[in-house]
Amino acid sequence: MSELNLKQASRKPEGLAAGHRLCAGCGHSIVVRMILKATRGPTIATSATGCLEVATSIMPYSSWNIPWIHNAFENAAATASGIESAWQAQRKRGKGPLAKYETLDVIAFAGDGGTYDIGLQALSGALERGHDFTYVLLDNEAYMNTGIQRSGGTPFAAATTTSPAGSVIPGKKEWKKPIDDIVIAHGIPYVATLNPAWPMDVMRKSRTAFEVEGPAFLHAFIGCPRGWRYPMEKTISLSRLATQTCLFPLYECTLEEGRPVYKLSGPSAAIARRPASKKPVEEYLVSQGRFRHLFRPEKRDDLIDSIQAWVDQKWEILLEKAGV
Amino acid sequence: MSEKQTLMGMNGDESVAYATKQVNPDVVAAYPITPQTIIVEKLSEYVADGEVDYEYVAVESEHSALSNCVGASAAGARAFTATAANGLALMWEITFIASGLRLPIVMAIVNRSLGGPINIHNDHSDSMGARDSGWIQIHCENSQEVYDASITAWRMAEHPDVLLPIMVCLDGFTLSHTMENVLTLPDKVVSDFVGEREFITVKGHMGETELRLNPDVPLTFGPVDLQDYYFEHKLHQIDAMKQALKVIPEVDAEYAKISGRSYDLLHPYRMEDAEVAVLGLGSTMGTVKYTVDQLRDEGVKAGLVKMRVFRPFPSSDLVDALKDIPAVGVLDKSLSLGAPGGPLFEETMATLYHLPKKPLIANYIHGLGGRDTGPQLIRGVFESLLEIKDKGEIGDPMNYVGARP
Amino acid sequence: MSTRKPSSKELPIGAVVTKSSMEYETGDWGVMKPQTDLEKCTQCTLCHYFCPEGAITMNDDGYPEVINKYCKGCGICAEECPVKCIEMVRTK
Ligand code: SF4
Ligand code: SF4
To answer: Would you call B50 an interface residue with chain C, using a CB distance cutoff of 8 Å?
Structure first.
């Protein structure tokens, strides 16, 4: 599609309007705006309960320039599957208001709480049934909307209000749930990770997700200045660092003859080619208040090292899968 | 003039499924649970045999079943689901959302007691638990009523003055698994009767449009509706329930023309000069009728008021039916633990409270967990009512019919 | 702007939203606003994409324009502009 270059897409009308009430510097709207620039035409979206939902739909104002529905917290995938079923039924019959659309980009947006935790069942069900929709995980690594509580997506050692850094326990004790692996195990046609620091990559992958027949899953890295405690102007640079440290590698996974085929995307592929360019994870950790207890009052090299080892191992496994 | 009809042997579940097949909605999303399973099996069989072209979505839970229906209905589809007991309890959150967003979903409830301890048999604890969720509730006495309501429900739910979801309630096993003779209409007659779903026009933030997720003129459904708007939206629902009291009889009257079967919100039976009467819902009403006939033969002035539509509550019809009866027994097939009485009892009391002269009203809880309520037990209810009438007073209004003390 | 809230009769059925958030100006949230030096601008469009508010549009000449009534002053655009042609300045 010709419109998918930065210049052209910058002229495309916004799917998410200004005037929303996300915090200054929030990563959500950056990513959502990019994703919506990649839609093909008729689109319907649903959001799980969460920051994005709340900040964009406070009665009487809406920021959604596309048809949008909030149902509940744990059921974004089920709601989307209903929308998709409505379209499939009406298209098949040539009758009903959705019958006329040749394509319909059905999008479910959900946060980490709505995906890793409370929404996992509905997600798994919708993936297994094979609905033609795109599920976008907006991963800001905690329940931010309710005041920064830990989720299955919160990283190890991060301090949240329900995994506080105490004098005995240094933040979250568990590792981040491998959500992409769980999703990929469903054998769906398309899974990709998104980082807003690379807008063209986000838009290209989003377009692929919409075009693919069947379920597609996009895992987006969403910086949260308030919950992670970093200066708001750093959202993009911190996101970039997450990929440069291989904490959040960028890749796509397609299904070829029943097998998952992994492909590293631009910035991560570059690190694979030049391993020396991989930055130490400490650089990422030190810039955020949620990891401050790893550096003060005394530096916890033991914890930092174990995080580095975890990142290294995950990265190596990914390289193996990608055949690098 | 009514249409030519075919007599079919069907149980209650099959009656739901057969009517739904004839209606042929766009989306059916359901999850199996006893005693509703026959419905989902039949509805998927029709798909497997190519007899229908709705999308059958075999969801992974009841929560997703109703969530799916919310998505489908908001997108402009006719969406159907069916459940029972714990399945409805799992949907509970979404029942309020479906009605709050004014989505005319039709759901069959095959009434079953709520665990725990777990029990698969019939009572009304499931649908009574959902009585405040903003759904219309129709309670059926037999499979014919189930079949008919499964057709008329769509017209009631989708009426522009109503736009509320509907539960068609049938008693588990007693109706769901019991074969009866059901008169059925030809497919074409049913599809002409239900027609196509129509939409009201609203003015949203991007202009005027039909009330649905319209890619051409987007609407925002399910906003964050805080203290400055939520209450007004509840007024809308209150009004819709009031409108439903008018619309339901209109749809029933139209249906009577093609089927020859007429229904009321509330059905009085041998109430002309009754001195004692029973009020209740569902399949037990068949047994009560039988007992009333016997008692009448014996010279007892007994009567029955069957409530078919429980939501919206037919208050004025209820007043008309009961105001002059000396003693009334309310049959509840569910509990409201810790409350003064069962739900139907409490609402009846509240409805009649303002009358200058009102009946003596006692509450008879019966049938919990599928406990059989035969004619003997119903006779006992009438005997107790006669005693109340003669004494002119009630001691403890609560009675637990058929339970071992 | 009138403060009278619509009556229930005036509100559409279905609790659907009646106004675009474009009517809700978030520009007073922050104290800093971006100032662009278009001499240096390479028209890369990145500031347009990185702005969380959609408060930077690209004009017909391909240059960014900041819509101050929505800009929350986060400073991402200034931080990310590859040629450093955006500067945050205090407005309050
Ligand atoms: S300061 Fe932030 S909100 Fe304002 S224009 Fe720049 S990126 Fe947008
Ligand atoms: S980021 Fe800088 S160079 Fe690029 S368009 Fe914006 S102002 Fe111009």
So the answer is: no
Residue A208 touches chain B, beta carbons under 8 Å: no
The CA-CA-CA angle for residues B317, B320, B326, to 5°, reads 130
The answer to whether A233 contacts C67, with C-beta atoms less than 8 Å apart, is no
Q: Residues A181-205: what's their mean pLDDT?
A: 98
- Tally the C-alpha atoms within 13 A of residue A307's C-alpha that lie toward its C-beta: 29
Both tokens of residue B299? 């010279």
Q: Å from A24 to nearest chain C CA?
A: 5
User: Looking at residue A4, what is its pLDDT?
Assistant: 87
User: Beta A251-256 vs B136-139: how paired, if at all?
Assistant: unpaired
pLDDT at residue number B1: 56
Strands in B302-307's sheet, in edge-to-edge order, are: B266-269, B302-307, B276-280, B327-332, B360-366, B398-401
ipTM above 0.90, yes or no: yes
Chain centroid, CA A274 distance in Å: 26
Chain A hits for C56, CB-CB cut-off 8 Å, are none
Residue pLDDT, tens place only, A74-130: 999 999 999 999 999 999 999 999 999 999 999 999 999 999 999 999 999 999 999
pLDDT in tens, B250-291: 999 999 999 999 999 999 999 999 999 999 999 999 999 999
Does the beta carbon of A2 lie under 8 angstroms from any beta carbon of chain C?
no
Go through chain C and tell me how many residues it has.
Answer: 92
* Measured distance between the N- and C-terminal CA atoms of chain C, rounded to whole angstroms: 23
- Give me B185's structure tokens: 């209409």
Contacts of B134 in chain C (CB under 8 A): none
**Whole-number pLDDT of residue B368:** 98
Q: B6-200+212-216+224-259: what CATH class?
A: alpha beta
Per-residue confidence (pLDDT) for residue A34, from 0 to 100: 98
Q: Ligand 2, closest atom to CA C58? A: 5
Residue C71, ligand 1, Cβ within 6 A: yes
Instruction: Give tens-digit pLDDT for A233-276.
Output: 999 999 999 999 999 999 999 999 999 999 999 999 999 999 99
Residues of chain B with CATH 3.40.50.920: 266-401
Q: Check if the beta carbon of residue B71 is closer than 8 Å to that of residue A108.
A: no
Q: What is the position in ligand 1's atom list of the atom closest to the CA of C75?
A: 1
What's A154's domain CATH number? 3.40.50.970
Q: Does residue A76 belong to any structural domain of this protein? A: yes
Q: Which of B163, B222, B232 sits opposite C11 (nearest CB)?
A: B232
Could you please state the CATH topology (level 3) that the domain comprising B266-401 is classified under: Rossmann fold (3.40.50)
Q: Could you give the 3-state DSSP secondary structure of residue A91?
A: helix
- Give the pLDDT score at A1: 47
Across the interface, whether the CB atoms of A237 and C23 are under 8 A apart is answered no
Q: What is the pLDDT along chain C (92 residues), one digit of tens a residue?
A: 557 999 999 999 999 999 999 999 999 999 999 999 999 999 999 999 999 999 999 999 999 999 999 999 999 999 999 999 999 999 87
Measured in Å, residue A197 CA sits from the centre of ligand 2 at 14
Say yes or no: CB of residue C47 within 6 Å of ligand 2: yes
User: What is the DSSP track for B79-101?
Assistant: EEEEE-HHHHHHHHHHHHHHHHT
Ligand nearest to the CA of C66: 1
The verdict on residue A1 lying in a domain is no
Strand-pair category, A43-47 with B201-204: unpaired
Cβ C78 under 6 angstroms from ligand 2: no
Overall domain count for chain A = 1
Q: Mind telling me how many Å the CA of C41 is from chain B's nearest CA?
A: 35
Question: With a cut of 70, which residues of chain B have pLDDT below it?
Answer: 1
Report whether residue C76 contacts ligand 2, using a CB cutoff of 6 Å: no
User: Is C56 touching ligand 1 by the criterion CB < 6 Å?
Assistant: yes
pTM of the complete model beyond 0.95? yes
Q: A30 lies in which domain range?
A: 6-321
Q: Which fold has domain C34-92?
A: Alpha-Beta Plaits (3.30.70)
**Sign of dihedral through CA atoms B58, B64, B66, B69?**
negative
C53 and A CB contact within 8 Å:
yes
On whether residue A121 sits in a domain, the answer given is yes
Residue A196 lies in a domain: yes
Task: Tell the residue nearest (CA) to atom 8 of ligand 1.
Answer: C51
Ligand 2 proximity of C35 Cβ (cutoff 6 Å): no
